[in-house]
């Protein structure tokens, strides 16, 4: 019999991630915290979005925080998107 340690990330009473990788669980939990903070900020600024759209938007922004930071510093969106595509292709090559 094997003992397996599982990490469960719960958010607003809902299981969002189950993994055996503590680092991945911590990163996902932090991403959700950042998304919550972004949602609070957006609402405080008076932007009216549905809760579903707010959640989708803030999670996308949080998952892509490094790219968003580059955009806020003036980087070109098209260049960053092309780099992301190239990175995905490169990762796929290493999987094969």
What does it look like?
The chain has 96 residues and is mostly helical. The chain has one domain (26-95). It is 66% helix and 11% strand. It contains 4 helices and 2 strands; from the N terminus they run ββαααα. It has helices spanning 22-44, 51-63, 65-72, 77-95, and strands at 7-11, 14-19. Strands 1-2 form a two-stranded antiparallel sheet. Helix 1 crosses helix 2. The longest helix is centred in the middle third of the chain and has 23 residues, at 22-44. The radius of gyration is 17 Å and the shape is flat. It starts with 6 loop residues before the first strand and ends with a helix.
Number of strands: 2
Tell me the Rg in angstroms.
Answer: 17 Å
What's the end-to-end separation, in Å? 32 Å
List the uncertain runs.
none
Order of helices and strands: EEHHHH
Total discrete domains: 1
Largest sheet: 2 strands, antiparallel
Strand order within the widest sheet? 1-2
Mean pLDDT: 93
Number of helices: 4
Structural class: mainly alpha
Fraction in helix: 55-70%
- Strand content bin: 5-15%
**Based on CA inertia axes, which overall geometry fits?**
flat
Report a brief summary of the structure.
By secondary structure, the protein is mostly helical. It is built from four helices and two strands; from the N terminus they run E-E-H-H-H-H.
């Amino acid at each position: 019999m094997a003992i397996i340690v599982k990490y469960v990330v719960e958010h607003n009473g809902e299981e969002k991630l189950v993994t055996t990788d503590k680092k991945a669980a911590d990163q996902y939990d932090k991403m959700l915290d950042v998304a919550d903070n972004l949602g609070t900020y957006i609402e405080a600024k008076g932007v009216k979005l549905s809760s579903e759209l707010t959640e989708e938007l803030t999670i996308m922004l949080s998952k892509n925080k490094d790219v968003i930071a580059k955009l806020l510093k003036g980087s070109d969106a098209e260049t960053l998107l092309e780099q992301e595509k190239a990175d995905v292709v490169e990762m796929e090559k290493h999987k094969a």
